[in-house]
UniProtKB/TrEMBL annotation:
This is Alpha-hydroxy-acid oxidizing protein. PROSITE patterns: FMN_HYDROXY_ACID_DH_1, FMN_HYDROXY_ACID_DH_2. The keyword Aminoacyl-tRNA synthetase does not apply. Gene3D superfamilies: Aldolase class I. It comes from Pseudolabrys taiwanensis.
Length: 409
């Protein structure tokens, strides 16, 4: 595991909020407000793609309910200030224990979304994870987010993992800080709203989708500025910039999820900190750690794979008990507020990540959406920490917490 104690660093200097934070905060005080606004600003297919879960979205509902069911007993008479929330992850200092989860195709939700999210993360210094199915190249993200750049990989297994291992090489050259292998997509499943939106297989706007675009002029303008959504990260291997050609190429070369032998192989190839994403069972966490993986990213893919999976936050305590002393613990799926980040940290996570809420933000507020949301998460987290009487993130772990959903493995 990466040594998190050795270095003594200067106090973290947080960036101030974005100049428009106060203005947007009045209009959209929480992510629920951003989600309500999102479909008014983007074509329906865009919203459905980013917002859908598997099946009837019950997995998403379970993720949210699991967070909502966690309650913290506050202590008073200790502090009237906003505590610091900066954190060390794998030897890098970040402004807060909250990051942006990897997403494929965020440009379908808002053209240019990958770069917008990366820039916002860089401004405040929180981790930004580029999805390998993302809409910007590794090198483009390295230019705008050099200090906070994490990369996620799916399994490009053809030709002895030639593409996957070349992505590892490019990641190294580009200064990627952390590599993440996603393990939780062994098979393809159905997301009903994505299927309905016409995006399950390729991006081929039909008459309905074109009508949806035409009534969303701000989105169309963003499309004109940024071009057609593309899968730029893997584009070079497909020898094409055409979205559907890249999708077809990816389907032929990619598939399934990394098995443990492959995790070991990538562990060898990547010299920096590495995490595996999609872990929900302590034994899988232990297996990963035994292979030299530095971070366990607990996730049920935001409820997008199947509905019946346990919520990450309920799996967290068991995984912390199993490997919390040996690995950095990351978590996503259902995070919607600074209070959720506090819940995750108080229960032992080192950092919580958010996916969909960033898509709601860029859909609702366009180019300023991600800027708004990074500030909102940090602002809420600090207020929540102060409210429970914790002077630091570490103290939050000593709070009395009611967590009825915690799984006894
Ligand atoms: C539109 C979309 C695309 C996603 N694509 C990927 C992906 O390519 N790779 C991956 O590991 N996870 C992917 N995820 C899952 C996220 O990384 C993350 O696990 C999830 O969104 C967290 O839950 P939340 O949406 O409730 O915050 C995707 C999520 C969304 C919403």
């Amino acid at each position: 595991m990466h040594d998190m104690t050795a270095k003594k660093e200067a106090a973290f200097v947080a960036a101030g909020p974005h100049p428009n934070f106060a203005k947007w905060h009045k209009l959209f005080p929480t992510t629920a407000w951003l989600r309500e606004q999102a479909p008014r600003n983007v074509p329906r297919f865009s919203f459905e793609y980013g917002d859908t879960g598997a099946g009837n979205d019950i997995g998403i509902a379970h993720n949210w309910a699991a967070f909502d069911n966690i309650k913290i007993v506050p202590r008073y008479g200790v502090t009237n200030t906003l505590p610091p929330v900066d954190v060390d992850l794998f030897g890098t200092r970040y402004a807060a224990p909250v990051g942006i989860a990897p997403m494929g195709g965020p440009a379908l939700v808002w053209p240019g979304a990958d770069l917008l999210m990366a820039k916002a993360a860089q401004r405040v210094r929180i981790p930004y994870t580029l999805g390998v199915a993302g809409g910007a190249t590794i090198e483009e993200i390295a230019r705008v987010a050099p200090d906070v750049f994490w990369l996620q990989l799916y399994r490009f297994y053809r030709n002895e993992h030639a593409i996957g291992l070349d992505l590892v090489r490019r990641a190294h050259d580009a200064g990627v800080k952390v590599l993440t292998l996603t393990l939780d997509v062994p098979v393809r499943t159905t997301r009903s709203r994505e299927t309905y939106a016409g995006l399950a297989n390729e991006f081929k706007p039909n008459a309905r989708m074109i009508r949806e675009m035409l009534v969303r002029p701000k989105w169309l303008m963003a499309l004109l500025r940024n071009g057609y959504p593309r899968f730029a990260t893997i584009g070079p291997y497909a020898n094409s910039t055409k979205t559907n050609e890249i999708i077809r190429f990816a389907r032929q070369n990619m598939g399934g999820a990394f098995n443990w032998d492959e995790v070991a192989r990538y562990r060898d190839a990547w010299k920096g900190p590495m995490t595996v994403k999609g872990i929900l069972h302590p034994h899988d966490a232990e297996k990963a750690v035994s292979l030299g993986v530095d971070g366990i990213w607990i996730s049920n893919h935001g409820g997008r794979q199947i509905e019946a999976l346990v919520p990450s936050i309920d799996a967290l305590p068991g995984i912390v008990a199993a490997v919390g002393k040996k690995a950095t613990i990351l978590l996503d799926s259902g995070v919607r507020s600074g209070q959720d980040v506090l819940r995750a940290v108080a229960l032992g996570a080192d950092c919580a990540f958010a996916g969909k809420s960033f898509l709601w933000a860029v859909a609702a507020l366009g180019d300023e959406g991600a800027e708004q949301l990074v500030d909102l998460y940090i602002d809420e987290l600090r207020a929540s920490l102060g409210q429970i009487g914790a002077l630091s993130l570490a103290e939050a772990r000593e709070a009395t917490i009611l967590h009825p959903g915690a799984i006894k493995f």
